[in-house]
From TrEMBL:
InterPro entries: NAD(P)-bd_dom_sf (IPR036291), ODC_Mu_crystall (IPR003462), ODC_N (IPR023401). It comes from Desulfosporosinus youngiae DSM 17734. One of its GO terms (cellular component) is cytoplasm. PANTHER family: KETIMINE REDUCTASE MU-CRYSTALLIN. Gene3D superfamilies: NAD(P)-binding Rossmann-like Domain, ornithine cyclodeaminase, domain 1. This is Putative ornithine cyclodeaminase, mu-crystallin.
Length: 333
């Protein structure tokens, strides 16, 4: 039997690639297009909670993307208190496989991929569902995914005003300063969620709550607003879905199951259901359903994060690693 190898791509390899905003967005958008065209398999995400006292859990995401000819499994640890020991709140790996033989192709550091694909999904949601003239962004949360939310959204809208707020002032202020330096425009760190969100054209809730707390008030959602709540623990009011003209998700199968998610309570109560759901984003990307139809619509986009998006970015990085001579080959057997 011939020797078998696969590639390991670490965080330093990915950093050397200098992935562009356009590359990140295209990879994720292509995976949404494949989803909308029925060229994927998405398995329900699973959760592993080793011990509730650790205040964290693992998510296991699985999928297959036919146009890329690759299957993948991502395991991501989500630990809210990791900052206390100098670790990211989310640490992840994605393993890519040949779907015809089961042969491992690559193991890719997925920590930054998780951040990138989440930001890309938020931005692509806005591309199809927000007003074209959005000028003000309000963003709750400064965790890892928050950076790419703001950077990729701004790459589309070039906001006149960006406001951020989060629970810990030290991380919030650092986040705002790094964004200001990167974007070349002021990013305001504000005192509370009302100052952050009220009057914003796009509201993003990406908090790291331990227990539910209504930080995004329904009354602030005025006609034309685009709202993206995706924290693990709910930070919205129960009435939020009542004012929406359209509700869109990344994958209904992922959103209607599991114990976590910003709108978990709304699903359980039937406020968000197969009947009240307007579309999955992939259906809009593929042209099967319409996105925003007028400037007065209040539209909500809830994304849980899809294996397809992780696999698409993992595949992009694996291909770039091969082309650039990066990554480490590991003897498998």
């Amino acid at each position: 039997m011939k020797s078998l190898e696969f590639m390991f791509v670490n965080a330093k390899d990915i950093e050397k690639m200098n992935l562009t905003n356009e590359e990140i967005m295209k990879a994720v958008e292509d995976s949404l297009l494949a989803q909308g065209n029925g060229q994927v398999v998405i398995e329900p995400r699973e959760h592993l909670i080793p011990n509730p006292e650790f205040q964290g859990h693992f998510n296991i995401l699985r999928g297959y993307v036919e146009p890329l000819n690759v299957a993948g499994v991502k395991v991501v640890g989500d630990y809210v208190n990791n900052y206390k020991i100098g670790l990211p709140s989310e640490l992840a790996l994605v393993t890519l496989y040949d779907p015809r033989t089961g042969m491992p192709l690559a193991i890719v550091d997925c920590t930054e991929i998780t951040n990138m694909r989440t930001g890309a999904l938020t931005a692509l949601g806005a591309k199809y569902l927000a007003r074209k003239d959005c000028k003000v962004l309000g963003h709750l949360g400064s965790r890892g995914t928050a950076w790419w939310n703001v950077v990729l959204l701004d790459s589309i809208f070039d906001f006149e005003e960006i406001r951020v707020n989060s629970r810990r002032p030290e991380s919030m202020n650092d986040f705002a300063q790094r964004l200001s330096d990167h974007l070349g425009k002021p990013v305001k760190a504000v005192e509370n969620s009302e100052e952050c969100l009220k009057g914003a054209d796009i509201m993003v809730e990406a908090t790291r709550l331990i227990e539910p707390q209504a930080l995004l008030k329904t009354e602030w959602v005025t006609p034309g607003t685009f709202v993206v709540p995706y924290g693990t623990i709910s930070a919205v009011e129960f009435s939020l879905t009542d004012v929406m003209d359209k509700m869109v998700v990344d994958d209904w199968g992922q959103c209607k199951g599991g114990k976590f998610g910003s709108l978990r309570r709304h699903v359980d109560a039937g406020k968000l259901s197969a009947e009240t759901l307007h579309a999955e984003l992939g259906e809009i990307v593929s042209g099967k359903k319409v996105g925003r139809e007028n400037d007065e619509e209040r539209i909500l986009f809830w994304h849980r994060g899809l294996s397809l998006n992780d696999i698409a970015l993992g595949h992009l990085i694996w291909e770039k690693a091969k082309n650039l001579g990066l990554g480490t080959m590991i003897e498998y057997r």
